[in-house]
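Slack export, channel: ligand-projects

TW: morning all. Re-posting the request from yesterday since it got buried. We need the structure predicted with the small molecule present, not the apo form. The ligand is magnesium ion; the SMILES is in the block with the sequence. No rush, but it would help planning for next week.
GE: picking it up
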Amino acid sequence: MKMTGIAAEPQLAFLPWNTPLESWPDDVVVALPRGISRHIVRFVRIEGVVYAIKEVELELAEREYRLLTDLHRRDVPAVEPVAVVSDRVDASGEPLPAALITRHLQYSLPYRALFSSTLRAETAERLLDALAVLLVQLHLTGFSWNDCSLSNTLFRRDAGAFAAYLVDAETGELHATLTDGQREYDLETAATNVAGELMDLQAGERLQGDLDPIVIGVSLRTRYDSLWREITGHIEFTRDDRYPLEARIRRLNDLGFDFAELQVVTADDGDRMIVQPKVVDAGHHSRRLIRLTGLDVEENQARRLLNDLDSYRVKIGLGPEDEEIAAHQWVSERFERAMAEVPADLRSRMEPAEIFHEILEHRWFMSERAGHSVPFIDAVHSYVENVLVSKPDERSVIGSRSGDIDDATAELRIVVPPDAD
Ligand SMILES: Nc1ncnc2c1ncn2[C@@H]1O[C@H](COP(=O)(O)OP(=O)(O)O)[C@@H](O)[C@H]1O
Ligand SMILES: [Mg+2]
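GE: finished. pasting the full C-alpha cell output, ligand included:
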C-alpha cells in the first residue's frame, strides 16, 4: 500500500490495510457516532489522536483530500485531511478501495446524535443557524458545496448554540468567487437535502409533531439570505450619523464575522458615505481570545469568556491597556481554577469551555435568585454538585469505552501567546 499526505503519525501505516475497512477488528476501531453515509467510515485512535478513515475510490479520495487541504488553508471550518491510502490489496492479492484519512473533529457530533428522542423546534433552529453561517463562510471563500446537508456537517456545541463544520467535501468545487447562480444552486440543494433529512426523522417519529420539514428547509435560505445581505451589501450613512455603520459592524461581530477591509466612497451629493465591506472572515472573538489567553474555542464560547475576562479585569482594578496582564491572571484564577474544581470523573462530560460557559450562566441564575452577586467559586461548586453530576454522560456519545477520551483538560488546546513570558 501507499500513503500520501502530511507527515502525520507513522503508525497509521501499520493499520490492517490489507483487510476491508468493514471487517477491521474491534480492538483497532473506536466506536464513535457517525452520520449517515454512502461509504464505510471507521475511527481509530493512535497516540491519543482519533482519525476517521473513509473507504472510497482513489480519484474521489484524492479530490476530497485536495479540497479539504485548500479549505483548511483558508481557515474555513472543515475537517482536517491527513492522508490518502492507495494500492491496497487483500491477503489473496485482490485490490481494495483507496481510503481518505482525516482527523476526527474533537467533541463534534452528527446531527442525529445531538438529541436523544425527538428533534425539537428550538434545536432545529440552532442547527440551521449554524448551517447558514457555514454556507456563507464557504461561499465567501469561493467554495460551492453542491451537496450541503445535515449529514455532511458536524456540529459542536458553542455556548448553547452550535458551530457547524463541513465533513464531506467530495462534491465541492473551489472557484475564485461564486456567481449568484452557483450560490443559488447550492442553496437549493441544501434546502432540499435538509427537508429530506427532516422527513426521514418525521417518518421515524423523531421530529417534533408540528414541525414542517419543507418549511424548515426553506428557512435555511432565509437565514442565509439575511446573513449574506448583512455581510456583502453596502451601507450608507452621513458624515454626522455614523450609527448605521457602527450598528452593522456590531451585529456582524456578534455573529462572529469581521471586516478585513472597508472601502468608503463618498456619494455624489458629497454628504453621504457608502461603505462596501471588502473581505469578511469569521472568528473575531475567538482570535481575540486566543491572542490573549491561548484558549482556542468556538466563537460564541469566546464571546462569553471574553465578557467574563473584561468584567474580571474591571474587578481587579485594571484598565483596558492592561488587558494582557488581566488575561494572564484570569486564565489561572478563573478558568483553570474552575476546571480544577471539576472532579476527574466528570471532566469528560463536556468541553471545558462549554462547562465554563454553563458555570457563568449558573452563577447568573444564582445571583438573580439571591438578589446579589454570588462569589464565583461558590457558583462553581454549586454547578458541579447540582448541574454537572446530573448531566447525561456524554462519554457514551463521545467515546464508547471509558478512557476513550482522555482527561478533558488534556483536550484543551493551549497555545502560549507570543508575548507571554
Ligand atoms: N474527520 C471526521 N470527524 C468526525 N466524524 C467524521 C469525520 N469524517 C467522517 N466522519 C463521520 O462519518 C460520516 C460520513 O462521512 P462522509 O464524508 O459524509 O461520507 P460519505 O462520503 O460516504 O457521505 C460523517 O457524517 C461523520 O459522522
Ligand atoms: Mg456524506
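GE: first-pass observations. The chain has four domains: 2-103, 111-231, 233-282, 299-411. Residues 34-35, 37-39, 41, 52, 54, 79, 102-105, 108, 110, 151-152, 154, 167-168, 170 surround adenosine-5'-diphosphate (ligand 1) (CB under 6 Å).
TW: perfect, thank you
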